[in-house]
Automatic annotation (TrEMBL):
It comes from Luteolibacter soli. This is EVE domain-containing protein. PANTHER family: THYMOCYTE NUCLEAR PROTEIN 1 (PTHR14087). InterPro entries: 5hmC_binding, EVE_domain, PUA-like_sf, THYN1-like_EVE. Transmembrane segments: none annotated.
Length: 154
DNA sequence: GCCAACGTTGGC
DNA sequence: GCCAACGTTGGC
């Protein structure tokens, strides 16, 4: 089982949206590395830290679970969608996604600042300077530590 | 295949 | 709103 961190802007789709929806296709990812993670490396049952970006304060707010295998992101074929990609075809889709399922909201948000200041989280990809990736792998020890800081027990 | 221009992300 | 970082595009 692998661990991940997924970023989302709470104004667009936050942990409360996921809690309400229960399950959500992670559409709109238009970055090849992030796509590759979903397409090639995620397996049903993998757990992800749900992270709020572009908000005050940014930080980890909960846990989501990979709910199924990867499949083509339907928004790439929708000319009315902001995620429409005219260069993608159904025969050869460019963008793949997985569904995420709500697992938990942390009793306490773990802010980015807290994460940066915690020595045991050193080396986490999301904390490295210049990391803009919306999906990053997380080591098991870092995952467990963030859950602990968030007050959540698996 | 290089690289300048451009667009986006995301913390501050 | 600023801007550093960095991914993508497209001309050559």
């Amino acid at each position: 089982m692998r661990y991940w961190l997924i970023k989302s802007e709470p104004d667009v789709f936050g942990i409360d949206h996921l809690a309400k929806a229960k399950r959500e296709p992670w559409s709109g990812v238009r970055n090849y590395q992030a796509r590759n993670s979903m397409r090639d490396d995620m397996r049903p049952g993998d757990l992800a830290i749900f992270y709020h970006s572009s908000t005050t304060p940014p930080g980890a707010v909960g846990i989501a679970k990979v709910a199924g295998e990867a499949y083509p992101d339907p928004t790439q074929f929708d000319a009315k969608s902001e995620y429409y990609d005219p260069k993608s075809t159904k025969e050869n889709p460019r963008w793949m996604l997985v569904d995420f399922e709500f697992v938990a909201k942390f009793p306490n948000e773990v802010t980015l600042q807290q994460m940066k200041e915690d020595p045991s989280l050193e080396g986490m990809v999301v904390l490295q300077k210049g990391t803009r990736l919306s999906i990053t792998p997380v080591e098991a020890k870092h995952f467990k530590r963030v859950c602990k800081l968030g007050g959540w027990k698996e």
